[in-house]
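Fold this complex.
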Amino acid sequence: MANARAQARKTKQLEFIWQAIKDDKSHPTADQIYDRVRKKLPRISLGTVYRNLQKLVADEKLQVLMLGRAQHFDPLVQRHQHFICESCDRVFDVLIENQREIMPTKLPHDGFRVTSHQLAFYGSCKQCLS
Ligand SMILES: [Zn+2]
Ligand SMILES: [Zn+2]
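Structure:
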């Protein structure tokens, strides 16, 4: 059974992690969030940061964006797409109004059901172009 102090510490860790990402539009990885949180909570482990991020995802406060094999965390939970700069690897949110559902004409096998899709735009950001 967790005692009250351990529980209070857990709540504090979750709150710090949430504060570190809630206004962040840069789609950081767990490692990047860990570096930030560690400045305020030096004894926190990457595993704890990771577990708390998964909790925030489960609570629908964060979305996960897979880029290659890395998970990026996104506090913008409304449905949106991404623009990825191929020069600097920065990720930008793209909001498309009245977006229609894209349905593939053919799925790999019969009996599959599509629930959502993710679209990514690749190119160069303004800063890399200038
Ligand atoms: Zn760029
Ligand atoms: Zn996003």
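The radius of gyration is 18 Å.
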